[in-house]
Amino acid sequence: MHIAKIDMPAYYSRAFQSRGGASDFIRCVEDVPVEKSKAKIVLYQAARMLWLGEQIETIAKARPAFQVLFQLIAAELVAKLAYDFKGDGQSRKHVHLFFEEICSDGHRGVMTGLFRDPRGPAITLPGIVDLLYEIRCDVVHEGQYFTFTMPDERGGVPLVTIIGERHLIARAPICDLHQVVLEGAILGALRLLPEESPCRSLLKVA
């Protein structure tokens, strides 16, 4: 399937209680004039980046660093649009804003469960985000993608993984991070909807 052919209601249905709920929300956002809201851009562009990350699994199986790269691209673009950022750079800052400010408390709970340091204290949310950003930079700056791994599925055996020079325990699969970014994109879009928008009453994320 071509990236331009993504079925947006179907793609976002995993973040709603039903496909119908996702379809109603997407349709409502699409009806908002672009000059009044960038919510549609947030939803479409985030879905495209996340979708691209998922496709890599077919040609680079069990290399989740690639998916982390595209998930953080999605997180960054959502935050920059949500905060109306007009400048250059500040990628790390906006990735932090996405996970720490746009995402929900539930999402932040998922994030802090991603990794554990067997030799140190619990890793804070900012620390988790920095680790993910380090993975992203390893791929972008050095083409380094093969030392990072995660369990294949929820409830899978935790795995030792290498991030930078640290040996950590990866406790959750890449799909958990994907779900956080997907739902976070919806919350980012919500920030860009007019206060009077009827779309707000349709936002029932699972």
Write the layout of secondary structure elements.
Layout (H helix, E strand, L loop, with lengths): L7 H5 L6 H12 L8 H18 L7 H19 L8 H12 L2 H8 L2 E2 L8 H18 L16 E5 L2 E5 L3 H19 L14
Antiparallel strand pairs: 1-3, 2-3
Structural write-up:
- The chain has 206 residues and is mainly alpha-helical.
- It is 54% helix and 6% strand.
- It has one domain (3-202).
- The chain has eight helices and three strands; from the N terminus they run ααααααβαββα.
- It has a three-stranded antiparallel β-sheet with strand order 1-3-2, covered by helices on one side.
- The two termini are 27 Å apart.
- 36% of the residues are buried.
**Oligomerization category of the chains in this entry:** single chain
**Poorly predicted spans:** none
Q: How would you spell out the order of helices and strands?
A: HHHHHHEHEEH
- End-to-end CA span: 27 Å
Task: Kindly name the structural category.
Answer: mainly alpha
Tell me the radius of gyration.
17 Å
Would you tell me the overall average pLDDT? 91
Largest sheet: 3 strands, antiparallel
> Numbering strands along the chain, what is their spatial order in the largest sheet?
1-3-2
Helix content: 40-55%
Count of the domains: 1
What does the overall shape look like?
globular
Percentage of β-strand residues: 5-15%
Number of strands: 3
| Helix count from the secondary structure assignment | 8
